[in-house]
Write a structure and sequence with these properties.
Number of strands: 5
Low-confidence stretches: 111-117
Strand order of the largest sheet: 2-1-3
Number of domains: 2
Strand content: 15-25%
Number of helices: 3
């Protein structure tokens, strides 16, 4: 099953669409390199054709240099989240655990308020 991943700035709630199938780990490894890519941003011709969208990533990296960047999948799950499905004990609605990977205790679910229970 496919699962497309993108680059997200949590500081500004903006996402750059990479649509990298199963690419969460790769995007996470790319993030520490983005400051160097940001330095090249102004020098990269916007019309350059490459296998991935280097010019766009470079401009996004420059715009969000120093921000909290993370890989996010097409369902809005961040790379550092547990992401196991859990049913609400009150209503039975199924949602994704938004707690950190490896968290202690039971998985939590989100109410409509966005608060993790």
């Amino acid at each position: 099953m496919s699962n497309y991943w993108n680059l997200h700035c949590r500081s500004h709630s903006e996402t750059y669409s990479l649509e990298w199938n199963r690419g969460g780990d790769e995007i996470q490894r790319l993030i520490p390199l983005l400051p160097k890519l940001a330095e090249l941003g102004p020098e990269i011709d916007q019309h350059t054709r490459l296998d991935i969208t280097i010019p766009g990533v470079a401009y996004f990296a420059a715009e969000h240099n120093g921000c909290d960047l993370i890989a996010v999948d097409e369902y809005g799950r961040f790379h550092d989240q547990c992401a196991k499905y859990v049913a609400c004990k009150c209503c039975g609605k199924t949602s994704v655990c938004r707690l950190a990977h490896g968290h202690e205790g039971e998985c939590g679910h989100e109410q409509s308020t966005g608060k993790v229970l």
